[in-house]
Amino acid sequence: MVAIIGVGHSKFGNRRDVSIPELAWEAIKPALDTANIEQKDIDFFVIGTAGVWSSEAAVAPLIAEYAKLEPAGSMRVEAACATGSAAIRVGYTAIKSGEADVVLILGIEKMQESTNPIVIELIGRFGNFFWEFENFGLTFPAYYALYATAYMAKYNASEEDFARVAVKNHFYGARNPYAQFQKEITIEQALNSPYISWPFKLFDCSPITDGASAVIMVSDDKVKEWKIDERVFILSQGVGTGTANLSKRDNFTSLKSAVYAAEIAYRKAGIDIDNPCKYLDGANVHDCFTSAEIIAYEDLRFAKRGEGVELIREEQTYIGGKIPVNVDGGLKAKGHPIGATGVSQAVEAYKQLLNKAEKGRQIDVVNGKYLTHNIGGTGHYAYVTIYGLER
Amino acid sequence: MEFEKAIEKNIEEFGFPVIIDEKSGALQWVDLREMNIRYLVSIENIMPFFEGLREGKLLATRCRDCGEIFFPPQKDCPTCKDSNMEWIELAKEGVLETLTVVFVRPPSFSNYDPYTVAIAKLDDGVRITAWLKGDPKKVKPGQRVKVEISKRKEGYLMYELIPIEG
Description:
- The structure holds two protein chains of two kinds.
- Chain A has helices spanning about 20-35, 60-65, 85-95, 115-125, 130-135, 140-155, 160-175, 185-190, 220-225, 255-270, 290-300, 310-315, 330-335, 340-355, and strands at about 1-10, 45-50, 75, 100-110, 195-200, 200, 210-220, 230-240, 280-285, 370-375, 380-390.
- Chain A is α/β, with parallel strands linked by helices.
- Chain A has a domain at about 1-115 and about 210-225: Thiolase/Chalcone synthase (Peroxisomal Thiolase, Chain A, domain 1), CATH 3.40.47.
- In chain A, the strands form two sheets. Chain A has a nine-stranded mixed β-sheet with strand order 3-2-4-7-1-8-11-10-9, sandwiched between helices.
- In chain A, a hairpin with a 1-residue loop joins strand 5 (about 195-200) and strand 6.
- The radius of gyration of chain A is 19 Å and the shape is globular.
- The model of chain A has no long low-confidence stretch (mean pLDDT about 100).
- By secondary structure, chain B is mainly beta.
- Chain B has two helices and ten strands; from the N terminus they run αββαββββββββ.
- In chain B, strand 3 and strand 4 (about 70) form a beta hairpin.
- Chains A and B meet through helix 4, helix 5, helix 6 and strand 5 of A and strand 6, strand 7 and strand 8 of B.
- Strand 5 (about 195-200) of chain A pairs antiparallel with strand 6 of chain B, so a sheet runs across the interface.
């Protein structure tokens, strides 16, 4: 068993007020404090950062120097938008294997060290370089829009349905002091925003974000030795990989990598794959774009194929519904600092399960289980993680 | 570049290449070590693909042992673990599966008007991603399309999809 015993989260958004290590410290310090440990207790740390838009390349040593983590072992990992979950994966397996007992995971991204056009240019290259970007100028919204169009055509969904996801996630973003956008929006506002990549408009897209998030993960032995009450366990994790090119996939209404990862995660956690909502109190899913949240409902079996859109129409993913989803604002409103997102989801799982979420966005903890779904690239990397209060 | 004038002025006035960020009001050092990157991507082993484009054909590789067609073309068959490939011409028509119109473009595509990217399943079962010519409002998934080779603004040949009327 691996437990999370401490968490930290910077304010997400435009963070040109701090440098990369300063931003890291905003997440590391509260993580150390809540875990009640010192740097010397950490025997391994993992830095998740995609980092093509920011100045520093040797990020792990930079953080080690600033936060006094050396000479403990480290590595920097990358899995596009699932970088944070990949970092968690490394820490989780390090502890499970017995190689480490106390691990710090930091996800960090300073996307706004580059201008928006440069970020758009760079992120378009997270598909297949030659057969998608170089010759056809795909952007990140465009990759996901190809899925959105296919979903709309197959299941009769509308741009208004997608806008409902934005409205929900902004509703909860407004209740999260760490979110980039803390303002509620209306369906009309979302629908009247300019097109980015049809059918996506501005409010269908997650923003370009700076942010850092951190967790302290320990072995069960440490939980017992240190007599820690405030902790959540990682019950299971499923990881999947998808093809580089979208053209090598056989449909555009589901991410095969996510379905694969979910099946593994459910099986390992003993969750009935046909009725996961019965076991889970809530979830964070990868809503880099609004339609991606709806497809995630189906890939995770919160709804049958084609019925994910019903969940949002009926407001079943608000608190009080069938399963609350992204009640921290999600990538859409909380922001999506690439490397920090997966770790931020873990922070959210910890806060929700331990009843530490801010007023107006705390779920009812009944089953004591929470799911996170983090997708890298255009479905290239999929991480589904189940967190629980009990071992 | 948008920063150049500000840098020049601020080095003169303050002694450093700095700007104040409009949104946060925070002081930024503007990196002077600007870099241009251009990759060299090897196409040595898929040269026939480009020769095919010159002849107006869209080519793929097919494994002579197992028959699997590879597009994008691959030199190696990972199933048979050999490289016994032949070049074949793909079907010239297929069905549109999905599309998007890219309004906000990467700076390196700013010389193009908003373009439509589509994925089509060709009649031999192979899917391709390409630009779709014509008014995107007039097409929907399910539309029959054909493949054509045409010249890009930069002067090089690339394949594209065109809706079939009627």
